[in-house]
Q: What sequence folds into this?
């Protein structure tokens, strides 16, 4: 099979690697400024799309299909971003007689509209945040708001990533918030349909990975914890979530499988939930109908190669495993390495990478597109690479991440590495008790608070101590004396619940 990768950067490289291992031929596409990019170097063939601006290159579905026809491609993998969740593009790919390595256009459409997807989820028995079931006029919103309750959230039906979203703490704010949300939604999506949801405070963002083939088989691969975000951009992800027990994983997984099945999903997809960690209640937020940036943490803990699975599914092959075959061993963390200055309000950083050393060694994986001499520009998103580590348990993964971050050297541009180093030393992160508000309300980067060696030694000691407390707790709760077989089973369940 010949696969055209309609993307750039680290994800294009990731997809090319999967194709090569499967024996597929690869076709890269690129813009003027990406002529020397790593994905172009690694692919078997590469074709120019146009100028740097995404609207003139990576978003030109028509050009991409011309290239696919000219080079005799059999399939198109869209990666994430750009055309990945564009139902018209997915349709055009299949109308051209090519395989789209992703879900059917109808599934993309059903999940792209929030009001519609909420209705579908309610019908499928998937818990959604209490709120309204259709788009509202201002008059209807004002009338219904008291029954939704405060604080509430106005959301754009076409929305995503927090755009067209406005929080309202009391009735007096409603009119202004409605018009602000509509204005933003119209500007961003060309659609000002809005609806209301109850605001869930101090929630965690937990998402479930699903895989569905073209034969009606749908399974889940467990959760990813994505609560560490800044301005709706994820900063660090982990698998499993410190807040999810095996029992909760089963329930959230079953809900995600029902969500995917309800829209006729095929391929890899992700169902996002808000989790109230205190009560264990969870609510459907949206489904991302694509491969996600943070997919590697799931791969590291389940051993399943998600990109290879997507390619197999697109070829019409059956899933080779069922739900009972999926096991989660160890703990994975992913730090997003961005070209930005964490000491200067995350200002985007540009320039040439003058010298580079990427960490490696046991349990370390780098998904990136960097090389010495690479020129970082401002045209695309700032993600340079993802540093992923796996450990036997969460404390081991944290210690390993700290080691790998210390080893990382990127000269010539500013990166978010110092932020991650600082995060690895925070007790809130080490303990695992954090929610979506943590990064923006309790975490600050200061130029003058550079960690002393003593502080870092103290943080390493704290991590080891957290590990010891955890094993002590397991020993207390599952002491010797029961049959060894029972005791080991109980230890494993407790270890997962306690985060690792
Ligand atoms: C919410 C919420 C609280 N209550 N919905 C933000 C992006 C979009 N996908 C949904 N988002 C939220 N929806 C209700 N009913 C809080 C957020 C939210 C959030 C969600 C996940 C990760 C980070 C977040 C940061 C701020 C707000």
A:
């Amino acid at each position: 099979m010949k696969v055209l990768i309609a993307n750039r950067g680290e994800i294009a490289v990731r997809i090319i690697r999967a194709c090569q291992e499967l024996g597929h031929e690869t076709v890269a596409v690129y813009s003027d400024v990406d002529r020397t990019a790593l994905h172009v170097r690694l692919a078997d063939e590469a074709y120019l799309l146009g100028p740097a601006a995404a609207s003139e290159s990576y978003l030109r579905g028509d050009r991409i299909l011309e290239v696919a026809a000219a080079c005799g491609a059999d399939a198109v993998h869209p990666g994430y971003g750009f055309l990945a969740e564009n139902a018209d593009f997915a349709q055009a790919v299949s109308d051209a007689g090519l395989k789209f390595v992703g879900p059917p256009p109808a599934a993309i459409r059903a999940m792209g509209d929030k009001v519609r997807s909420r209705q579908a989820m309610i019908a499928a028995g998937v818990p959604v945040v209490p709120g309204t079931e259709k788009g509202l006029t201002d008059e209807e919103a004002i009338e219904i708001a008291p029954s939704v309750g405060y604080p509430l959230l106005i959301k754009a039906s076409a929305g995503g990533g927090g755009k067209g979203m406005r929080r309202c703490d009391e009735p007096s704010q409603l009119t202004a918030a409605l018009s602000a949300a509509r204005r933003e939604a119209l500007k961003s999506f060309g659609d000002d349909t809005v609806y209301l949801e109850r605001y869930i405070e101090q929630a965690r963002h937990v998402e479930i990975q699903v895989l569905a083939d073209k034969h009606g088989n749908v399974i889940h691969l467990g959760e990813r914890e994505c609560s560490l975000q800044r301005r709706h951009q994820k900063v660090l992800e982990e698998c499993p979530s410190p807040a999810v027990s095996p029992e909760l994983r089963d329930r959230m997984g079953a809900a995600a499988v029902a969500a995917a099945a309800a829209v006729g999903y095929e391929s890899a997809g992700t169902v996002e939930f808000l989790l109230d960690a205190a009560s264990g209640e969870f609510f459907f937020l949206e489904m991302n109908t694509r491969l996600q940036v943070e997919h590697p943490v799931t791969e590291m803990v389940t051993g399943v190669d998600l990109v290879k699975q997507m390619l197999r599914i697109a070829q019409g092959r059956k899933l080779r495993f069922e739900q009972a075959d999926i096991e989660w061993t160890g703990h994975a963390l992913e730090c997003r390495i961005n070209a930005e200055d964490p000491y200067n309000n995350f200002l985007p950083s540009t320039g040439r990478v003058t010298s580079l050393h990427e960490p490696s060694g046991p349990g370390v994986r780098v998904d990136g597109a960097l090389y010495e001499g690479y020129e970082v520009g401002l045209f695309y998103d700032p993600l340079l690479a993802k540093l992923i580590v796996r450990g036997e348990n969460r404390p081991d993964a944290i210690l390993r991440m700290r080691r790998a971050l210390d080893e990382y050297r990127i000269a010539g541009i500013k990166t978010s590495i110092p932020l991650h180093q600082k995060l690895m030393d925070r007790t809130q992160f080490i303990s695992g008790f954090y929610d979506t508000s943590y990064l923006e309300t309790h975490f600050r980067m200061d130029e003058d608070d550079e960690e002393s060696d003593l502080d870092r030694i103290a943080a390493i000691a704290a991590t080891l101590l957290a590990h010891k407390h955890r094993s002590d707790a397991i020993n207390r709760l599952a002491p010797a004396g029961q049959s060894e077989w029972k005791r080991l089973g109980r230890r494993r369940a407790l270890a997962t619940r306690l985060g690792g």
About this structure: Residues 129, 153, 161-162, 197-200, 203, 205, 229, 232, 274, 285-286, 436 surround MV4 (CB under 6 Å). DSSP finds 17 helices and 22 strands in the chain. Residues 224 and 239 are 5 Å apart (CA to CA). The mean pLDDT is 93.
